[in-house]
Specification:
The complex is a heterotrimer. By secondary structure, chain A is of the alpha/beta class. Chain A contains 15 helices and nine strands. Chains B and C meet through α10 and α11 of B and α2, β6 and α3 of C.
Chain lengths: 349, 278, 362
């Protein structure tokens, strides 16, 4: 009896599935689906674990992730310009926001429809879309090999680390931010990157590996191919949670970083769902959950108490966090292509 | 009659036009435009490529990388195919499975496995250091030879399978006849088996070569950012620098260069097969 | 021309493949310059035996000796055998000349000695005009000539022929058989040929070795094989036969008496080793069947079922009164009979009626 009952259930389910496949409009009316972009790796995991359930609870809609780097998202939106965008919510690092806004790829954020927006730190309330977190870079090092934490960026040039320093290519945000910071410390400005490149050329003898992308970069740490390199607070937390021997030291020149933000894509198919999704990310509950290890996503909602790894190494309070130095992307962005090109030529063997 | 038979190939032809020829023309069009929005005709991207040593050094590096990897692949792959072709049926299927198995895992997984093997703390270096063969760990990752070795392994099935299928078709009496005429194993291999397997060898070379020069994942993961080959260069220009027309131009140049090498190999194959064109 | 023959001795050779016995305890001595045919149905082990002599297979038991010296430790390349395969196995990527030169190069002949030798060998097989052709461009017979030239160029001790004529059509086959026989005679080379074609074996070989199920059934000159088969298998395999069942009544060294199914008593050759009263088969070749008009003591009554003119001879299919079918061959000059005609059957001579125990394999 049981088996025949199971089979009937199965047939019913199969029938329902077939019907929904034949009548997509009908199915949509039942459950709507939002397509939202997210970064590969821990960001997509954190969003699946905390953001998607919170969003579904609010709206009853489902969310499909489109996993792309910020630059890739911009490329997709450019390619789809004038037609249906491939996703309704974009996740950008600071530099892409300017590019996307300038090219009309994102819409102004309707703050009135987003109840949590007002609770954000003042600096996070961007009219092109709320900042949802902050990325901080510092010096990553392998505590098994390097017993005393490095104090300054200059440590990378220390001859004792010959062949053990890592870098990432300049097409990653980490790479370009590192160059900009080194350039500043060596006396350059955002109009003149020559001191930065000179410093990089001097660094090359120490460099054991340059990861072509952030995935490869993480592997370098995992395989202990490199012992010291510029790295990102969140990536360090992720690797640590996987028992990779890596720590982050904040150099005496202070932490530097950039904001990460979420955006309503221009001509979105379901703008109401998109805003609701973004607002869910601003929710203190969601942000507090994502602040916990292994994600350690730095919150931007002032109602979320700052705690955990971030308070140990980067900033104890929101006031301190707001002092983290950022970059002038307005000036850097137009040079990005030239910088990447310059870097590639300098490092090519 | 002829037409009716040809018409069976129409769906494939349509597919080919829509998904290969058409995009190719789009690519060509983009490569001849000043930028993505204003479609003004220009050769500037091609001129830029050939007037800049940096660009064509990447092209020659890539073409040479393909040759090196294909050569290594052949040196290791031919004996495998030869042994498999002569093995008893049971052993043959085991060998065949061992050859094919890597295809069933993703290139990314295989490449990461190689990082574990070749790394500073990797398996190979642990052996080398453990045996006291070297004081310092060997630098294998992020070197061209590292890329060559991994490409040779990753693309091995493409070399072994065509050779194996040709070797299996060679009349076993030919090797016996050679032996009875007084030739040892090496002379038989060199004078009879190898020349007769040339069509498979060339097919293997072409497949392996095309796969090696375009192996973005393996090249960039094992080579890192300091060893720049064409696929990474194209990617950086397109996505990193958002310079789509230039990326399209170097894609076209790369494609033509690879086609030239493949055509050269084909010519070689045709030359060696003159005896079959009676 | 002096004899270049070498003796070949096969001593108690057995070959097992997993649990299958391909060759079972075969001993055979082949004299110098002798031409021996290994004859048998497919799967009888004759090809395996040939490959053992060649050195392609190392036998599980027994020894192979050339001129009294064991060659079991030698690879095929060191034994000095020449082999011609059924498909000739010419190297397709080499010209005729290169094919013939191959063995000479492998045996490290001096470079300037090779070319004249190749030309001489090609002349010998009438292929001088085809030196620059590739095997694909030759007919079957031409390919075989080249294969022979290639093989004989290195002056092998033993010539092995593996079903050499099976791929040729009938007329060409006959020509090539004569040609090969001529070459073999000229060279005086010891030759072992594998064939399943009894006519080929009987017409070409000095001695025929009939094999069945891995065993040697009989080794004898062709006419002895035909006239005095040692076993029912040989009798059936070589030439065409009639099988007549009956009961052995009496036997001595001169001959025997057998009672057939319809009660007639038939005189046959001596049934050595068989006891009176056992079931036997009498084997009678069609050409040994005599058709007579009147009934006599030993003649069986029958009726002509069909008539097949074969050129110089006529074959008859006759049904006996008890329903058995008998084939007979008669010269055409004798009285031609028609279908339906009643006849009486007898044997030309009782010595041609061989008696075997009735436990036959088929």
């Amino acid at each position: 009896m049981l088996t025949s009952f199971d089979r009937r259930m199965f047939l019913k389910a199969a029938g329902a599935f077939g019907a929904s496949a034949m009548m997509p409009g009908f199915a949509l009316a039942q459950t709507r689906t939002l397509v939202a972009a997210t970064f590969p790796g821990t960001w997509s995991e954190a969003h699946r674990e905390f953001l998607a359930p919170a969003f579904t609870k609010r709206t009853g809609a489902r969310v499909t992730q489109s996993i792309l780097l910020g630059t890739d998202q911009v490329s997709r939106l450019v390619a789809a310009k004038g037609g249906k965008p491939p996703f309704d919510v974009a996740l950008f690092d600071a530099p892409q926001v300017l590019d996307a806004a300038k090219q009309g790829l994102i819409a102004e954020y309707p703050t009135a429809q987003s109840p949590n927006f007002a609770d954000l730190l003042p600096g996070a309330q961007d009219k092109w879309g709320p900042q949802i977190s902050m990325q901080i870079i510092g010096i990553g090092y392998n505590p098994k090999k390097i017993k005393t934490p490095p104090k300054s960026w200059e440590a990378l040039w220390d001859p004792q680390y010959k062949g053990r320093v890592g870098l990432t290519a300049l097409n990653s945000q980490l790479g370009i931010a590192f160059l900009a910071e080194i350039n500043r410390l060596r006396g350059g400005t955002e109009d003149n990157f020559e001191p930065g490149f000179k410093a990089l050329r001097e660094l090359l003898p120490n460099v054991g590996a340059i990861g072509a992308n952030l995935g490869a970069y993480a592997t370098l740490w995992q395989q202990e191919q490199i012992d010291i390199a510029p790295y990102n607070f969140n990536f360090v937390q992720t690797l640590k949670s996987k028992d990779v021997p890596v720590e982050l030291a904040i150099p005496d020149s202070g932490p530097v970083g950039w904001s990460t933000s979420m955006h309503l894509v221009a001509n979105a198919e379901a703008p109401d769902l998109a805003v609701s999704y973004i607002d869910a990310h601003l929710d203190p509950g969601v942000q507090a959950a994502m602040l916990k290890p292994p994600y350690d996503v730095i919150p931007t909602n002032s109602k979320v108490p700052l705690e955990g790894a971030i308070t140990l190494s980067v900033a104890k309070t929101y006031a301190e966090l707001s002092k983290v130095r950022t970059f002038d992307w307005e000036k850097i962005n137009p040079q990005r292509t030239a910088l990447i090109e310059h870097f590639n030529r300098d490092v090519k063997i | 009659m002829e037409w009716r038979r040809l018409s069976l190939a129409l769906p494939l032809a349509a597919l080919f036009v829509v998904f290969f020829i058409a995009p190719l023309f789009v690519l060509l069009g983009v490569s001849l435009s000043t930028d993505m929005d204003t479609h003004t005709f220009t050769f500037a991207h091609y001129v830029k490529f050939f007037t800049d040593r940096f660009n064509y050094s990447i092209l020659t590096d890539t073409l040479l990388l393909g040759l090196k990897a294909t050569a290594v692949c052949f040196v290791f792959g031919y004996p495998v195919a030869w042994i498999a072709a002569r093995a008893r049926p049971g052993l043959q299927s085991i060998l065949l499975l061992a050859v094919i198995l890597p295809i069933m895992t993703s290139v990314v997984v295989r490449t990461f496995a190689w990082i574990v093997i070749l790394g500073r703390q990797g398996l190979l270096n642990q052996i080398v250091l453990g045996l006291g063969l070297s004081e310092e760990p060997l630098r294998l990752l992020f070197t061209e030879w590292g890329v060559v070795i991994v490409l040779a392994q990753v693309q091995m099935p493409l070399m072994v399978l065509p050779i194996l299928s040709i070797l299996a078709k060679i009349d076993p009496n030919l090797a016996d006849a050679s032996r009875a005429l007084g030739a040892g194993e090496w002379r038989t291999l060199w004078r009879v088996t190898l020349p007769l397997s040339v069509p498979g060898v060339i097919a293997g070379w072409i497949l392996t070569y095309a796969a090696c020069v375009t192996a973005f994942v393996t090249q960039s993961l094992i080579g890192g950012a300091r060893l720049v080959y064409m696929p990474l260069h194209i990617y950086q220009q397109a996505v990193g620098a958002n310079n789509w027309p230039f990326a399209a131009a170097i894609s076209i140049i790369f494609m033509i260069a690879v086609l030239c090498v493949v055509a050269g190999l084909n010519l070689l194959a045709a030359k060696s097969q003159r005896h079959a064109q009676a | 021309m002096t004899s270049r023959g070498h003796r070949v001795d096969i001593e108690s050779v057995s070959q097992r493949f997993a649990d299958y016995v391909a060759v079972s305890d075969v001993s055979l001595s082949i004299g110098d310059g002798e031409f021996v045919a290994l004859l048998g149905p497919s799967g009888c082990g004759k090809s395996t035996l040939l490959r053992i002599i060649a050195g392609f297979i190392h036998q599980t038991q027994g020894r192979v000796l050339f001129d009294g010296e064991a060659v079991d430790h030698l690879q095929a390349s060191q034994r000095g055998v020449g082999i011609v395969f059924q498909n000739y196995a010419l190297f397709p990527h080499m010209t005729v000349r290169q094919n013939v030169a191959y063995g000479l190069q492998a045996r490290k002949w001096a470079r300037d000695a090779i070319a004249p030798r190749v030309e001489a060998m090609l002349a010998r097989v009438h292929m001088s005009a085809f030196g620059e052709r590739y095997p694909r461009q030759l007919s079957g017979g031409q390919q075989q000539r080249v294969a022979l030239a290639r093989c004989l160029a290195t002056e092998p001790k033993v010539l092995l022929l593996d079903e050499p004529f099976a791929a040729l059509d009938k007329n060409l086959r006959f020509d090539m058989q004569i040609e090969v026989k001529r070459l073999q005679r000229d060279y005086g080379i010891t030759t072992v040929m594998v064939t399943h074609d009894q006519e080929e074996a009987l017409s070409m070989a000095d001695r025929v070795a009939v094999m069945s199920r891995g065993r040697l059934e009989q080794v004898a000159p062709p006419m002895d094989i035909y006239d005095h088969p040692a076993s029912l298998f040989v009798n059936q395999f070589v030439g065409s036969t009639n099988l007549i069942e009956g009961e052995l009544l009496a036997s001595d060294s001169w001959g025997s008496k057998v009672r057939l199914g319809d009660g007639t008593i038939m005189s046959a050759a001596s049934a050595k080793g068989l006891a009176n009263g056992v079931r036997v088969v009498v084997v009678l070749r069609p050409e040994h069947v005599a058709l007579v008009d009147e009934s006599s003591g030993e003649a069986r009554a029958g009726r002509i079922k069909s008539v097949l003119p074969l050129g110089a001879q006529v074959a008859y299919d006759i049904e006996t009164s008890d329903g058995a079918s008998i084939k007979a061959i008669a010269a055409r000059g004798v009285q031609l009979r028609r279908p339906g005609e009643p006849v009486h059957l007898t044997s030309i001579s009782s010595a041609n009626c061989h008696v075997f125990a009735a436990v036959h394999s088929s």
